[in-house]
Design a protein that fits this description.
Length: 71
């Protein structure tokens, strides 16, 4: 009975699986990095299933533009 992340469906052998919200059973198990990425992409701070509100600190992402120098 191997547990898998509900986001990426991978087992917890490379990273530890966590249960950060109020979902029960296998729906509440995921990798922290998967959760962080999903929250960033979906631009939310709540679990889409149980509506648990995660405590987040968001940091602005810096964009670095490197132009090719013409000689």
């Amino acid at each position: 009975n191997q547990q898998v992340c509900r986001i990426c469906y991978s087992a917890g052998d490379l990273q530890t699986l966590i249960a950060p919200c109020q979902c029960s059973g296998t729906m509440g198990i995921l990798h922290q990095t998967c959760l962080e990425r999903w929250l960033e992409i979906s631009n939310t701070n709540k679990c889409e299933i149980c509506q648990y509100e995660y405590e987040l600190i968001r940091y602005p992402r810096s964009l670095i533009y490197v132009s090719e120098m013409k000689e």
